[in-house]
Design a protein that fits this description.
The complex is a heterotrimer of chains A (308), B (315) and C (356). Chain B has 315 residues and is of the alpha/beta class. Chain B is built from 12 helices and 12 strands. Chain B has one domain: Rossmann fold, CATH 3.40.50.300. The two termini of chain B are 21 Å apart. Chain C is of the alpha/beta class. Chain C is globular, with a radius of gyration of 22 Å. The two termini of chain C are 36 Å apart. The chains are: A mainly alpha (308), B alpha/beta (315), C alpha/beta (356). Chains B and C meet through helix 7, helix 8, helix 9, helix 10 and helix 11 of B and helix 7, helix 8, helix 9, helix 10 and helix 12 of C.
Chain lengths: 308, 315, 356
């Protein structure tokens, strides 16, 4: 017993390199984002709900055979104004169309327009905004461009453009990009300016790193979280904006299914057949809000401060 | 001291003035009329307190701050103001910087491998991928880190380790001059000695020249060959380290020296810090100039003061 | 020795960080004597700040005292919960000065109004009397032209001047204990010397007890009567300031002293400590410093050392003091420390100033 205890008072081995090891498991940014994202109990079911909803809206109209240009039941009065039932899930409308089909066809176009516009807007906005934030020369004249563009009423711009270009999917996307890119660019510019002069960027400059590499390696990785936040707001906003423009008759033409125009048409039945008005509105709200919430959760997860 | 004059000058600052505009009328002169040479192979320390302009000078040599007057020469060629692209590339490769705060100066979203390779990528200083990885491994080893650290991110490291990553990324460029801007003041006390030792070791191995910026004379005594003391944007005294500590002359240098706390309770409790009376106002005038009091020992003073300083040494 | 004014016993502090618990303070006891200056030295993360925050109930909201007691005038401070219960102690009996003076000053109110507010709160004085008193306090802490600068805002003061104001505010209630939490770390060395002198002079005049937290042993030598060295959430050695500097016993104290650049010899390596402080998320077995100690014993990894008595005032928590332990000498750099520094600060030495 005594000898064993005496041994304890011998010198232990010492390895200088030993203290340099990092015991913690390897850190990976995207893995941590994923782990943080799925940790919340609300997010996972909601994310599944959003994916199913969007996928259904994209696929259902392909098989429903609905077209705004044909009204097969227009001369069948017994098919009109049917309330929701097992056969007619959302009921039928004033010209005997299945509201179910009408709504999903409209939702599909809204989603397509919003997703494509958001993609184009973000790509242009981030590229321009990053360069804008970096270059003091560019800032001088871009700020003037911004002052002009941001003061033109967007509705006016939408009106002019849609009259000039006509009312189609492509032109609606173009309208949205024209209205919105400058705001994204300005937002990114401000974000870039906040981190542009941080010391690690100075260090890169001292190593001779060029502007494009700096944007790619030093700036954008820091902006993932704010960009995801922006996108998660942008998509539902643009879905609603499509509805709004089409509601005013500035969006998709009458040959396209559109939630906005549907709501506009059904508005007159609000008192007699309220389901006709409320169903498309609620579907719109369900898509927009769930997309927004999931997007915000994702944005939170992309902020490394939430990582463990 | 005569051997001094024969030594090769690596960097030369000539009447450097750096001013910042804070909105039109008000011009703030951060550095005034700074002139000094840094010899090849030496550690030249620039010591001053916050707002003295020491970091501004360091960054001017890095070509981050522009001069409003004067010039900076590197190996005899002007590197301040507009220079050609080729010269710019050469300067970047030859002059590297170590930053004060290792937490702020490393890109948190990049792996250590990328951070250390960054300079190599920029100038394609490697034959192939394998060569680059070997260079990174060697750089890590030189600063006492391990090859397995390549895939880690800065936030996983301790302050001392991070600062060594900062040193590795600068030295992989094989620079001739390293500007070290208070490289240990943001580190924990127990880590500082290790980083200082490492910097000394690498300097000897790679025949580096350091411009070591510090706020504290105690660190500088250990690492520097020559010291310039800067106060309110003006260099007030330049001398070799031993000379400066043996015969400090400018009252500001003396107050700095007296303020270094000594780790000895009996002595420290008796020591009185000497307050520099002109701490907030610059002492200057037409009579003032950098005057050589003893060989290689310059003080910013008037001729009368110079005489007094010289006499005080002879006593 | 004078009376004990405050006595902390077996203090343990835990923080909840996300889902983990971090034990920042591990069973620390400390008796403070009236009128003394006790310095706590340690690097960041050693727990020196957290420990003293328990004296004023200022732990961050995720932190909790999970064990121990702090007895102060017959009252256990760990039992105080609400702001109201703390009101008669925090800032009144026990005041704190922080590293960054701006944490204690309101940037959008004048310096004068911030001092008078504190005076009026605790003494029944008229506005004019409070102002007079404020100006005299400002003068006392070394603000030139105090009357003129009474109506200035904090941003119009330099860092050193702001710290003087914070000291003025802290002392305006005549506290019994002043906690100085790295009050000069953010300041220039020449200003640091002045602030330290100010605190010492005021202490002589007003007789309060000081806890001085710092990582700088040079400052400790200047201010302290007694010293506690903290590492890994524990005090690992304490004693009078002379005992800690001239006869240190714990390898960590040795290392901290030896690594000071003031003691460096040009052309030779400085003594240095490898590795990093322990993570307080994990349970620490044995001596927390063992993994960084090249002369650690096997027992250091297995069993926590008790405090061994070196003298009546000097205790160290290291197995090296056990009679069974092998003899280990302190590093060369700190042998004959006093003689070395005497040489450095005498005529012809590197840190000699003045004409004597």
């Amino acid at each position: 017993m005594a000898t064993q205890e005496d041994n304890l008072f011998e010198f232990a081995e010492f390895d200088e390199k030993e203290s340099e090891h990092i015991a913690a498991p390897r850190y990976s940014y995207w893995k941590s984002v994923w782990r943080t994202f799925i940790r919340s109990r609300v997010t996972v079911p909601l994310a599944i709900f959003v994916i199913v909803l969007v996928a259904f809206a994209l696929i259902q109209p392909l098989y429903s055979g609905y077209s705004p240009m044909v009204a097969p039941n227009i001369n069948t009065p017994e098919m009109k104004y049917l309330p929701p039932s097992a056969q007619h899930i959302f009921g039928t409308d004033n010209i005997g169309n299945e509201v179910w089909d009408v709504v999903w066809a409209g939702a599909r176009n809204s989603i397509i327009v919003s997703f494509i516009s958001t993609t184009i807007i973000m790509v242009i906005g981030i590229l321009v905004g990053a360069l804008w934030g970096f270059s003091k020369k560019m800032d001088k004249w871009m700020i003037e461009v911004y002052n002009v563009l941001s003061n033109v009423p967007s509705l006016l711009l939408a009106m002019i453009l849609s009259y000039v270009l006509g009312a189609g999917l492509g032109s609606l996307i173009f309208v949205m990009v024209c209205i919105d890119w400058i705001f994204v660019a300005y937002f990114i510019r401000t974000q870039v300016m906040i981190i542009r002069d941080r010391e690690y960027n100075l260090a890169s400059k001292c190593l001779g790193t060029g502007t494009f590499t700096m944007i790619k390696k030093n700036i954008l990785p820091y902006l993932v979280s704010v960009i995801v936040t922006y996108i998660s707001r942008e998509i539902p906003v643009l879905i609603s904006y499509e509805v709004f423009l089409s509601y005013l008759g500035l969006g998709l033409g009458s040959n396209y299914a559109s939630l906005g125009r549907t709501i506009s048409q059904y508005r007159s039945f609000m008192t007699g057949y309220p389901h006709l008005f409320w169903i498309p509105v609620l579907v719109l709200a369900a898509i927009a809000i769930s997309l927004y919430v999931v997007g915000q959760k994702l944005a939170d997860a992309t902020d490394p401060r939430t990582h463990r | 001291m005569s051997e001094m004059t024969n030594r090769e000058v690596l960097v030369s600052l000539r009447n450097v003035e750096i001013s910042f505009d804070n909105g039109g009328k008000h011009k703030f002169k951060a550095v005034q009329d700074a002139s000094f040479d840094i010899y090849k192979g030496e550690t030249f320390a620039l010591v001053g307190e916050s707002g003295s302009g020491k970091t501004t000078i360091g960054r001017a040599i890095m070509r981050i701050n522009e001069l409003s007057a004067g010039e900076i020469l590197f190996e005899g060629k002007r590197i301040s103001g507009k220079i050609s692209k080729q010269e710019d590339t050469d300067v970047i490769r030859s002059i590297q910087m170590i930053f004060q705060d290792p937490a702020a100066s490393l890109n948190e979203r990049a792996t250590i491998e990328y951070i250390i390779s960054e300079g190599l990528y920029n100038f394609h200083l490697y034959k192939n991928e394998q060569d680059r990885l070997e260079k990174v491994d060697r750089a890590l080893e030189e600063v006492g880190l391990l090859p397995e650290h390549k895939s880690r991110y800065p936030h996983e490291f301790s302050g001392g380790q991070r600062q060594r990553v900062g040193i590795a990324r600068a030295l992989i460029m094989e620079p001739k001059l390293v500007v070290a801007d208070e490289p240990i003041s943001a580190l924990d006390v127990s880590i500082r000695a290790q980083v200082l030792n490492l910097m000394n070791k690498l300097k000897n191995e790679k025949a580096l020249t350091y411009l070591f910026i510090a706020h504290d004379l105690s660190v500088v005594r250990f690492i520097a060959d020559r010291i310039a003391v800067i106060h309110l944007g003006r260099i007030v005294e330049i001398a070799e380290t031993e000379e400066l500590f043996a015969y400090p002359m400018h009252p500001y240098t003396i107050s700095l020296l007296s303020a270094v706390p000594m780790p000895d309770p009996i002595i420290e409790k008796q020591r009185e810090a000497i307050v520099y009376a002109d701490a907030t106002e610059e002492k200057t005038g037409p009579d003032y100039a950098m005057r050589e009091i003893r060989p290689g020992h310059y003080v910013y003073c008037t001729p009368e003061q110079a005489r007094t300083y010289a006499e005080s040494v002879n006593q | 020795m004078s009376d004990i004014i405050i006595s902390a016993k077996d203090i343990e502090v835990q923080f909840r960080v996300r889902d983990n618990y971090l034990t920042a303070i591990r069973n620390v006891s400390l008796d403070l004597y009236e009128g003394e200056t006790f310095a706590i030295v340690g690097e960041s993360g050693s727990g020196k700040s957290v420990f003293t925050k328990t004296f004023t109930g200022m732990l961050e909201s995720n932190g909790k005292i999970t064990n121990g007691s702090i007895m102060y005038h017959g009252q256990d401070l760990t039992k105080l919960k609400t702001e109201k219960e703390w009101a008669s102690i925090r800032g009144v009996k026990i005041a704190t000065i922080f590293q960054d003076p701006m944490t204690s000053l309101n940037p959008i109110r004048t310096i004068g109004s911030q001092i008078t507010e504190v005076i009026e709160k605790h003494q029944k004085l008229s506005k004019a009397e409070a102002k007079d008193q404020a100006i005299s306090i400002m003068e006392r802490v070394g603000i030139p032209n105090a009357a003129e600068r009474f109506d200035n805002y904090p941003f119009q003061y330099s860092g050193g001047m702001r710290q003087r104001i914070v000291i003025a505010i802290a002392l305006s209630c005549h506290p019994e204990i002043l906690i100085c939490d790295e009050p000069t770390t953010a300041l220039d060395v020449t200003i640091q010397a002045q602030i330290i002198k100010l605190i010492k002079d005021l202490q002589k005049e007003l007789g309060f007890t000081t806890i001085y937290i710092t990582h700088d042993l040079g400052v400790v030598a200047n201010v302290a009567d007694r010293v506690g060295v903290m590492y890994g959430g524990q005090i690992i050695e304490y004693g009078t300031v002379n005992e800690i500097f001239y006869d240190p016993q714990h390898p960590y104290t040795w290392a901290l002293l030896s690594a000071l650049p003031q003691l460096g010899v040009k052309g030779e390596d400085l003594y240095y400590i490898t590795g990093t402080p322990p993570s307080l998320y994990n349970k620490i077995n044995g001596d927390a410093f063992a993994p960084r100690n090249p002369r650690a014993l096997k027992i250091d990894f297995a069993q926590e050392p008790p405090f061994f008595k070196v003298s009546d005032t000097h205790y160290a928590k290291t197995w090296l003091l056990d009679p069974r332990a092998p003899k280990v000498e302190k590093p060369d750099a700190i042998k004959d420390l006093h003689e070395k520094i005497l040489r450095m600060t005498s005529k012809g030495g590197a840190f000699h100033v003045g004409n004597d």
